[in-house]
Amino acid sequence: MLSKAYEPKPVEAKWSETWQKERLFISKPSAGKKPFVVVIPPPNITGALHMGHALTYTLQDVLVRYQRMLGREACWVPGTDHGGIATQNVMEKMLKAEGKTRHDLGREEFLKRTWAWYGECGSMILGQLRKLGCALDLAPENVRFTMDTKRAAAVFEAFRSLWDKKLIYRGERMINWCPRCGTALSDIEVEYEEEKSKLWHIRYQFEDGSGSVTVATTRPETMLGDSAVAVNPEDARYSALVGKKLRLPLTDRLIPLIADEGVEKDFGTGAVKVTPAHDPLDFEIGQRHKLDMPRVISYEGRMTNCPEKYAGLSVQAARKAVVEDLVSGGLLEKEEHYKHSVGKCSRCSQHIEPLVSEQWFVRMNRLAAPAIAAAESGGVKFYPPSWKKPFTAWLGNIQDWCISRQIWWGHRIPAWYCRSCSAAGLKFSDTGELSRVSFTHGAKPVISFEKPAACPDCGGADLLQDPDVLDTWFSSSLWPFSIFGWPEKTADLDYYYPASVLVTGYEILYLWVARMVMSGIEYLGKPPFSQVYLHGIVRDKHGKKMSKSLGNVIDPLAVIEKYGTDAMRFSLMAQTLGGKDIPFSDEATVGGRNFVNKLYNAARFMQMYLPETPAPLEAEMPEELADRWITERYGSALARSRAAMEEYDIPKAQDALYAFIWDDFCDWYLELAKPRLQSEGRENVLALMLELFTGALKALHPFMPYVTEELYSNLKLYLKKPGGCLLNESWPEAPRTVSPAAAEMLELMGVIGQIRTARSQFEIPPGKAIKVLASSSDPEALARLEKGAAYVKLLAKVEELRLGRDLPKPPRSLSAISGSFTLYVPMDGAVDLEKEKARLTKELEKARKDNEQCLGRLNDPAFVARAPRAETEKINARAVETAGKISRLTVILEELK
RNA sequence: GGGUGGUUAGCUCAGCGGUAGAGCACUGUCCUCACACGACAGGGGCCACAGGUUCAAAUCCUGUACCACCCACCA
User: Fold this and answer.
1) Is the CB atom of residue A386 positioned under 7 angstroms from any atom of strand B?
2) Which ipTM value was assigned to this complex?
3) Per-residue flag: A222 CB under 7 A of strand B
4) In what order do the strands lie in the sheet with A463-465?
5) Residue nearest to nucleotide B72 (CA to C1')
6) How far does the CA of A541 sit from the C1' of B11, in Å?
7) Is residue A476's beta carbon less than 7 angstroms from any atom in nucleic acid strand B?
8) Does any strand B atom come closer than 7 Å to the Cβ of A398?
9) What pLDDT digit, counting tens, does each position of A147-204 carry?
10) How far apart are CA A164 and CA A159, in angstroms?
11) What pLDDT digit, counting tens, does each position of A87-106 carry?
12) Any bridge partners for residue A338, and if so which?
């Protein structure tokens, strides 16, 4: 006999290995079959997978396995993402532990080490995906990486093509700079957080001594880079003063008072200091008025190009010093408490500095328009649909995308500069490379993957590659087709593109999803997928985001270790509705674990009765009430599950099967089958049980692949058509129902329930058999109960069931009512009359209240006139039923007195 | 400032026009020959608040409060 409790570990190890070895998950273009393609969000090689990965990959695995069982050629290509800044930060942290920085190693050595890390971390991640049960073929030749040779070719082709169309340009613009990561970021890589700060009111005096203008600012230190003070042209307070010169405090510079529409009259003092190099709005004002653009904050986040006293200070220190000096100079008018949001680096949470810098950009307007159209027309459909609006709104308001990053790990920008043509403008570092933040001053780039042999202009051979790398999302945006070999015209691309569905968390809707849609349309003329399923974020049980600093991170592998993969998958899938965030806790997994165990034990139960040497059962399908009923329930569960899957309602799809197995199959059918398995015709009962149970295993396989495969592999030996691995089986079809059984079964279940309740309330031990009298005035009901007597006897532990019309209540007995039946349970000893009265009175009260409500509605002419017929009939029936119950209960209670 | 979603049993959430449901937790009985990771039974909810529509509202509409998230050049 097998152990009582299911042990997931050996089972998971066995099947995981078998599936890979048999290349079960491999997909090949197959002319006769419709493909079903899921685009995997490639995990970054920044470390172990977390709970969010477990969620997204399980979700995808469920879809892939399900569709495969429905007969589609399901394709899900594994891969990892090089992860740009995130991975570089991980590497730098490791180096720091050795007391080194990346500059100690140099670019080449640093890249070598990062590639080695990719080797380690990448395969660890693939191993973890395997543990999650993902139906991914992990043979090395099948695994993609955003920086492997083929993907690099795709990146170059995309870059070249956009450059040729003038959709990529290099320019000097306001960007978000992270002084800690030492790189520019795109707008969406900045996260804004509300911070308590101050609003400083600073007096700028007129050069001619005719008074002053007060400006309000949250960043006094940037005043060292001011090149004007601006007011709204409509602002009467200032209109006469516009054009006058102001003395910039703490410096010896003079700046003009200008008028610009960007300034709001009602904010602060209505006058704003303009720092074109370090504020996005000021930059625009500066452009409009052709102002100087002194850069006073360096790429390291320190003051520069300013009075000696502040030079080299950090922004924070400079702020303090500037405020102090303003105070002592009598120029600080006031200081207000103020809350505003501050931009932070999404990768390292440090404050970002807006500053002007020369970078590479993608012009987005033209790319965004067709993506918006695709969403509007339903060519790309969102689940849940509420994401369509934010998607189109973001695209409609899109800014150019800064794609250059001043880091080392990533796709090097395929642009080269000729040293002899453009030497005057190029700025070099000591190593002869272009410096970390390069100024090419309009030097003409040559776009080439490899170093060009000669400069097309002057023929010189001394070309230097742009030192920057591309935003990691640039390569990610090509993923849905780069994985199939684009830009080559491959058979895979032809067959699998576009994909069916993209499943990912809503937090990367703009970073990734929107950009994939744009690039798919741009390069292949079609959106890369027709459906987008956006799920929520896995949070801790209090709804907090999991983070290392909060110490509330749950490691999926630890959960698997403790409860098993199927249990974790089940629990995660039970909560993924509507794209809402998922509060996850260890305890939540217990439910899944218990269900897995339930399946295992149901199988164990059947195996007790199956012959030891497996052979297909020779049997006829039985057709008694319970058989017909359970077949009906099975069919209904499958239908509901399937319908839910069509709408990506994973929890509902799973729950329909769960409820069938637990509530119907185990609690009722198996219990009813027990005596039948001891007697003649047991093969028939076993055959039906096997058919339904193995069918349910198939249907459940996408959700819990391991336990279902394990159980099926044992049970299938008794089936006429055993099949192979579950993944190659068809998702089950609902069988034809022979004749309706639900109503009859429900009637019996009601009687059983009433007897059980009476037993329980009067603490009749479960093992003790009792007598029951069932009285009814309805002869048909009595006939039905007679037919079902065996069920009642079995499940309510009744040794003798007497049926009859208007049977008198035996002395010392309990009473209960179920449908048309009045049930009496004679007791051995005295009955606690008070308890019985209280119980029945409560029932009576309930029935009275119900009856009153029904009558109230039936006596309401408006209800009778307006409500649909079916509704009035229903209420009427209930009124009759409750009335009957009331009169019978009243009689019983009278007798008790 | 704009937008979206939420507010239902102690907890996590279903239900979205016909008299409130699940899982977990709780109480009682039972280690009944599949499963105590179990069985059976039970307790527990003016469905955030205020109006409105309707014969009928947790469910539709309007507003309020609180929570969460997203977007925005909040000097």
Assistant:
1) yes
2) 0.95
3) no
4) A446-447, A415-418, A463-465
5) A397
6) 10
7) no
8) no
9) 999 999 999 999 999 999 999 999 889 999 999 999 999 999 999 988 888 899 999 9
10) 9
11) 999 999 999 999 999 989 99
12) A197
